């Protein structure tokens, strides 16, 4: 699951042209049988997000919005049950959930006097049944369930996976009899930036001292890792000293270059752990 | 001055007298009248002698092609004497080498009256700080003084100034004349304005050292490396990275000089001193030079060299020279001189009649140089013996030294072999963040959410900046200001509230201490040697290690023994941060914080071991305390350096003020500004409390960053005066009760010597008039409680504080490495002699990792946790040793005693000797010492956890508590076991020895006497029943009588002290008679009579004793017999022996008879 930069690039190259559908994912799996589904999905998702970020702006010009809305109206006019919105998203190479958001916003603008707030839109997307227009509600729903990278459903899944891995990590720590403080306890103590777990007694992993462990239920690619470094990992280091990041779905090997400086990357719970022994300092 | 040397050489004056004369103003009466008279006439010159001597030696050695960088000689006190004096023949570019004591002035100039010449020379109005105004001096003085001009002889500007030889002859330049010799690097004042000049030549300053202004003074002429143009002071920024003067310009300078010289030679009628042949090429530093062999047989003037060496050594010993290590460096340069520049033959041949005067050059050949150097080194052996092992090795292996003084070589070799002190390398600091402490870093301590948020963000920005610096600062072309300046200023801009500043300063200062405190700092104190190294290298800084090793393999070119103050390594980051931040709020808060911390650490009570009861028990506590001292000292030095940096930052400039007026007004302004920290009071306190060894080193750091004006301010001037007085008082050879420890002194001498060479410290300061000194009596006698008398400084600390001492080693190493490197001088490729251990670092050993874990454990815990654990470990470890001593060792001693009993019996029969006996005992008992470790471990294991538990808060999480306990156990065990394994055998030996001698003492007076009294001790040992005489042991009557005789004679003749014989007649002892049948009263009566007879007891005394016996409870019959005896004793007059015999005759039944009568 730890990929070299070259391996990673090869996968990413493959992803450039495929739409974010389950079919694409299956093809990818066939192409790279040695990689786990979760890793591929994570890479897939991240690559797709990068792609969307790059193209986001062109879908948000008022001309584009108008044209999408018109096409939506035309489509549902012909057949309200057909996956008009989903097909439109795939056709213009945009995430179905995001397409649904554009159309929903546009729809609400037309039907309400005040432009809808973000929170209203979010809640409608989370529960499309609240959307006043039944056809649109259906279309939005189709988009959300068919989008494997964006949307409330995916967010929910991601959150659950993240949480699950935190629990997994907690269990492993308990099992290894390593005492820790978790994020909530740390917050209560007044720490401002808090990793998932702070070890009350540091351990050595593969010869490196670590004070904290952060769990990431995703693949560590360059982009996300750098963002994490800047927003989280270095801040932890600044406060608590060196620590360990577990990218459960793997990471690019080359990114594990800050070991000497105190950020260690692993793709699983480490096995090479040395704890402070009894009477450690005795000669 | 020269006159003094002359007198010495003519043996009119003894060296001892001369040194006394130099060192003390008062003439002591012990001197012989002739000497006194000879010297008294020279009295006014006394304080100029040392600068003269130093400069004279440098001058004389100017033709030597040396190793290494120039020997700076900031001994310009001489120049202080120069202004206004008639100079001698021109120096400098014009080249004529001084004839030191020309009996008559052969030159036209000689015809001139001194006054005339003086007048001629004094063109300019008195320069600002002209120290001239000397009274009329003798001719000798005047001429002698010229030799002080050595510095000038290399002054580049000299070449350009009055250049014509004739002029030079007739109107020798006054080197103190600031117009003729404007200060280095300054813009020559247009016309009238002159100002003080520092008569010092430049040395190329390597770039990383360029902190100190390029004008650099540590730079008097290198031997034979003619300094080039003063490095230009182009850089307007006082801290700028001014370009260093390269060797090329030196080369050019030299070339110019050479031409100038030869021109002059051709023109001057009688070159009086050695100068190179016109055509001869002076050695350049580019070619590699093979060293000329040195031969003791070819030394030209032994006696003269010996004398000068003696005087020179005496000056060094008396601390009359500003910098001890500078002189040693100079001497080693002489020792390792490659060769000498050819001089004119005529110069080499001393003219008849002037032999042994100073007429001819002192050093005529390499042989002379080496001879002189070895002479001086012999006198300095004591200091040498304290140098690091590497230096000692190089010295001991130096073939010249061996050749010239096999004896010294032998001593050095012995010192080398006996040297256990290691000098560990300055470790690269590890970057570790200051941990976030919710106790202090919480919202309650901030005025608003915003301020708190800013603070939290700052931490991230600060470390981001730090990380970037770490990554990039070594990249060529990277610039701190360009790379990070704006980010730092943006960050400072956000610190609006005053409290935010203080919070940030706290972080900054903590990080500074964490990163820059050198070895043994925060990390190193806890777990012994190997882990120390690891800690200093950081968690796993292999990369650093590699870089370090590379640096060692090719260390930076040396910058000589007096490098200017610098901010090496991580310190550079903090310096640049302060500069880039350029925030006066930040600076103010930083100064406040640094001052506070300095005060706090300076007054820290450092425990030092109670005077131990002659055994090594307190050694247990010793290592830790020495380490603690080192940590405190290094922290103080770091903090003081930064305080000095920030405090004097606004005043620092590349040059002293250009005019007197300006300077006066600046002085007026500055003198009313209160000092940032009352360092004078702290110094005075430190001296009074005998804590100079702690206070002075940091004060020196602080002062080293002062600006040019500071030393002129009364306040600081008085500090310098104190320091000077202290310096003089630190005579290394003085040793004894109450003296400061040797290495403590050496450290102070090294740092003070270094300070006196700092560019901003005026050169005349050292050779100041003594009258001004008694501001405060400096007393180096240590009191019982002072740190000064405790050996807190070890070699490691000395070298850590004064890395420049290592220059000596580099110099010697470059000699070994054969022909010099590309610069022809100092070699870059140096074989490190002390780095072997680094290669084999146990980087990932379990033990190392465990040590790191223990370190890391404390990182995120409140500081009190660490203090508690360390305290517990320290106490338990110490108690453990005491416990082992009281149990195991005491048991062994008891065993020894019983073994001894046996042995004594055997020995008596076999006639062994007590020394052997001790050996036998020890060899039997010492192996049991191994148990000490096991028992020690058990003790620590048992005692530590409870103590930790009792001292930590109840709420401490279980995991934290148990780890703390384990660490305490480990540390205590380590402490105890380290000591025990090193000392247990010695301890057992010592205790057994004490027991043995106690017993032997109890056995008899002294071994020698004991031998004679063998029969007597035999009687004691096995012939007298000890307790209640069991019948089977009864003595035969004759035996008993003989025994009594023996005892009596023993008491009378052998005991030196009164024997408490009245004890014999105590009821208990007399009662012993009661059980015997028949009771031998006659023997008792005999004894009593004899006691009186021999004068051992008085009649009355015995009567009193017998009287008191009545009071005791006796069996009836016994009481009666006793009464009879008493009467008998009273009744019978003093009887001589024969009559006693009669008594004997009735013996068999005497008791009964008595009883019946």
From TrEMBL, chain A:
<dbReference type="Pfam" id="PF14811">
    <property type="entry name" value="TPD"/>
</dbReference>
<dbReference type="InterPro" id="IPR029404">
    <property type="entry name" value="CDIN1"/>
</dbReference>
<dbReference type="GO" id="GO:0005737">
    <property type="term" value="C:cytoplasm"/>
</dbReference>
<dbReference type="GO" id="GO:0005634">
    <property type="term" value="C:nucleus"/>
</dbReference>
<protein>
    <recommendedName>
        <fullName>CDAN1-interacting nuclease 1</fullName>
    </recommendedName>
</protein>
<dbReference type="GO" id="GO:0030218">
    <property type="term" value="P:erythrocyte differentiation"/>
</dbReference>
<keyword id="KW-0963">Cytoplasm</keyword>
<keyword id="KW-0539">Nucleus</keyword>
């Amino acid at each position: 699951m730890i990929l070299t930069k070259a391996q990673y690039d090869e996968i990413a190259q493959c992803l450039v042209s495929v739409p974010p559908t389950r079919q694409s994912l299956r093809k990818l799996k066939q192409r790279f049988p040695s990689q786990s589904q979760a890793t591929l999905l994570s890479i897939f998702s991240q690559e797709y997000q990068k792609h969307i970020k790059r193209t986001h702006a062109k879908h948000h010009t008022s001309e584009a919005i108008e044209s999408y809305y018109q096409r939506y109206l035309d489509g549902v006019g012909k057949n309200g049950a057909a996956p008009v919105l989903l097909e439109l998203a795939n056709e213009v190479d945009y995430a179905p959930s995001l397409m649904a958001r554009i159309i929903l916003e546009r729809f609400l603008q037309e039907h309400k006097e005040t432009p809808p707030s973000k929170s209203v839109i979010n809640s409608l997307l989370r529960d499309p049944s609240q959307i006043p227009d039944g056809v649109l509600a259906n279309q939005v729903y189709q988009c959300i369930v068919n989008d494997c990278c964006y949307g409330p459903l995916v967010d929910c899944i991601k959150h659950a996976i993240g949480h699950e891995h935190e629990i997994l990590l907690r269990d492993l720590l308990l099992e290894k009899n390593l005492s820790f403080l978790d994020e909530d306890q740390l917050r209560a103590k007044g720490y401002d930036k808090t990793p998932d777990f702070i070890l009350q007694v540091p351990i050595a992993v593969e010869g490196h001292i670590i004070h904290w462990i952060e769990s990431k239920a995703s693949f560590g690619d360059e982009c996300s890792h750098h963002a994490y470094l800047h927003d989280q990992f270095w801040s932890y280091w600044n406060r608590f000293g060196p620590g360990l990041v577990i990218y459960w779905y793997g990471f690019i090997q080359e990114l594990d270059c800050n070991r000497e400086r105190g950020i260690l990357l692993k793709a699983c719970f480490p096995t090479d752990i040395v704890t402070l022994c009894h009477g450690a300092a005795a000669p | 001055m020269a006159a003094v040397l002359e007198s010495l050489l003519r043996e009119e004056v003894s060296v001892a007298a001369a040194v006394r004369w130099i060192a003390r103003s008062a003439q002591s009466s012990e001197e012989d009248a002739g000497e006194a008279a000879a010297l008294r006439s020279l009295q006014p010159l006394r304080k100029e002698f040392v600068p003269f001597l130093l400069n004279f030696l440098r001058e004389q050695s100017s033709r030597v092609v040396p190793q290494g960088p120039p020997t700076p000689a900031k001994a310009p006190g001489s120049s202080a004497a120069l202004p206004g004096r008639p100079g001698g023949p021109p120096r400098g570019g014009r080249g004529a080498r001084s004839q030191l004591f020309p009996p008559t002035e052969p030159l036209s100039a000689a015809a001139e009256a001194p006054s005339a010449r003086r007048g001629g020379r004094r063109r300019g109005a008195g320069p600002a700080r002209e120290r001239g105004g000397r009274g009329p001096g003798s001719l000798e003085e005047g001429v002698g003084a010229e030799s002080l001009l050595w510095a000038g002889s290399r002054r580049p500007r000299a070449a350009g100034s009055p250049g014509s030889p004739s002029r030079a002859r007739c109107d020798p330049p006054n080197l103190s004349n600031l117009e003729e010799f404007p200060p280095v690097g300054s813009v020559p004042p247009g016309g009238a304005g002159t100002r003080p000049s520092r008569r010092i030549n430049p040395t190329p300053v390597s770039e990383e050292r360029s902190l100190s202004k390029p004008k650099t003074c540590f730079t008097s002429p290198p031997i034979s490396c003619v300094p080039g143009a003063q490095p230009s002071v182009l850089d307007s920024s006082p801290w700028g990275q001014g370009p260093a003067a390269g060797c090329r310009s030196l080369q050019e300078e030299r070339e110019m000089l050479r031409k100038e010289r030869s021109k002059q030679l051709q023109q001057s009628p009688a070159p009086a001193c050695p100068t190179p042949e016109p055509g001869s090429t002076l050695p350049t530093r580019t070619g590699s030079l093979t060293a000329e062999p040195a031969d003791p047989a070819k030394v030209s003037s032994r006696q003269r060299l010996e004398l000068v060496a003696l005087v020179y050594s005496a000056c060094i010993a008396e601390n009359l020279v500003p910098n001890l290590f500078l002189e040693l460096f100079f001497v080693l340069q002489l020792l390792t001189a490659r060769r000498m520049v050819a001089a004119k033959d005529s110069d080499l041949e001393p003219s008849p009649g002037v032999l042994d005067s100073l007429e001819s050059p002192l050093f005529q050949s390499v042989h002379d140089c080496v001879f002189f150097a070895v002479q001086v080194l012999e006198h300095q052996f004591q200091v040498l013996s304290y140098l690091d092992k590497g230096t000692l090795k190089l010295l001991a292996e130096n073939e010249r030294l061996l050749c010239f003084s096999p004896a010294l070589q032998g001593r050095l070799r012995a010192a080398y072999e006996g040297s256990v002190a290691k000098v560990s390398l300055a470790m690269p600091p590890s970057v570790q963040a200051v941990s976030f402490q919710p106790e202090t870093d919480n919202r309650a301590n901030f005025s608003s959410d915003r301020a708190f948020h800013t603070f939290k963000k700052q931490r991230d920005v600060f470390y981001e900046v730090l990380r970037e610096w770490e990554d990039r600062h070594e990249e060529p072309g990277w610039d701190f200001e360009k790379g990070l300046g704006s980010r730092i200023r943006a960050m400072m801009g956000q610190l609006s509230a005053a409290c935010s500043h203080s919070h940030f300063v706290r972080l900054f200062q903590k990080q500074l201490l964490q990163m820059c405190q050198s070895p043994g700092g925060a990390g190193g104190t806890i777990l012994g040697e190997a882990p120390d190294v690891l800690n200093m290298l950081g968690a796993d800084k292999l990369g650093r290690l590699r870089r370090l090793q590379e640096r060692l393999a090719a260390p930076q070119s040396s910058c000589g023994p007096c490098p200017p103050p610098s901010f090496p390594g991580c310190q550079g980051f903090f310096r640049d941060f302060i500069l880039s931040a350029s925030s006066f709020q930040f600076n103010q808060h930083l100064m406040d914080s640094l001052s506070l911390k300095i005060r706090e650490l300076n007054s820290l009570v450092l425990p030092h071991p109670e005077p131990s009861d002659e055994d090594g028990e307190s050694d247990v506590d010793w290592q830790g305390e020495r380490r603690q001292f080192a940590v405190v000292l290094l922290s103080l030095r770091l903090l003081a350096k930064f305080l000095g940096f920030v405090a004097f930052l606004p005043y620092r400039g590349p040059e002293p003020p250009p005019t007197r007026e300006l300077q006066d007004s600046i002085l007026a302004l500055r003198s009313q500004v209160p000092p940032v920290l009352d360092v004078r009071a702290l110094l005075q306190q430190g001296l009074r409390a005998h804590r100079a060894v702690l206070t002075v080193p940091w004060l020196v750091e602080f002062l080293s960053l002062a600006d040019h004006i500071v030393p002129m301010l009364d306040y600081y001037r008085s500090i310098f005066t104190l320091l000077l007085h202290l310096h003089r008082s630190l005579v290394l050879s003085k040793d004894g009760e109450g003296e400061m420890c040797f290495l403590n002194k050496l450290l102070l001498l090294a740092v003070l010597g270094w300070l006196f060479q700092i560019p901003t410290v005026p050169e005349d300061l050292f050779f100041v008039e003594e009258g001004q000194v008694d501001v405060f009596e400096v007393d180096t006698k240590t009191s019982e409680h002072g740190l000064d008398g405790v050996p807190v400084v070890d070699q490691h600390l000395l070298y850590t504080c004064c890395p420049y001492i290592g220059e000596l080693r580099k110099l010697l190493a470059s000699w070994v490495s054969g022909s010099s490197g590309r610069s022809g001088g100092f070699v870059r490729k140096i074989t490190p002699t002390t780095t072997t251990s680094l290669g084999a670092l146990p980087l990932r050993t379990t033990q190392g990792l465990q040590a790191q874990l223990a370190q890391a454990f404390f990182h995120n815990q409140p500081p009190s946790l660490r203090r508690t654990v360390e305290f517990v470990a320290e106490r338990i470890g110490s108690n453990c040793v005491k416990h082992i001593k009281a149990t195991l060792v005491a048991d062994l001693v008891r065993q020894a005693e019983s073994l001894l009993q046996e042995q004594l019996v055997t020995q008596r029969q076999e006639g062994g000797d007590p020394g052997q006996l001790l050996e036998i005992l020890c060899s039997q008992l010492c192996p049991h010492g191994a148990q000490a470790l096991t028992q020690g471990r058990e003790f620590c294991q048992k005692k530590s956890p409870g103590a930790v538990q009792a001292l930590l808060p109840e709420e401490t999480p279980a995991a934290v508590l148990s780890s703390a306990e384990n660490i305490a156990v480990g540390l205590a065990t380590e402490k105890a076991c380290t000591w025990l394994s090193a000392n247990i055998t010695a301890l057992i030996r010592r205790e057994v020895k004490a027991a043995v001698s106690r017993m032997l003492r109890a056995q008899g007076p002294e071994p020698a006497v004991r031998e004679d009294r063998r029969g007597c001790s035999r009687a004691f040992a096995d012939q007298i029943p000890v307790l209640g005489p069991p019948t089977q042991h009864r003595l035969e009557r004759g035996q008993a009588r003989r025994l009594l005789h023996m005892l009596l004679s023993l008491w009378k003749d052998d005991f030196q002290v009164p024997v408490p014989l009245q004890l014999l007649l105590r009821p208990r002892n007399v009662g012993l008679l009661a059980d015997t049948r028949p009771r031998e009263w006659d023997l008792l009566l005999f004894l009593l009579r004899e006691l009186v007879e021999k004068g051992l007891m008085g009649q009355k005394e015995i009567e009193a004793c017998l009287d008191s016996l009545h009071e005791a409870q006796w069996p009836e019959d016994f009481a009666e017999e006793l009464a009879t005896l008493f009467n008998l004793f009273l009744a019978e007059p003093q009887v001589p022996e024969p009559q006693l015999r009669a008594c004997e005759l009735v013996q068999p039944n005497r008791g009964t008879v008595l009883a019946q009568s």
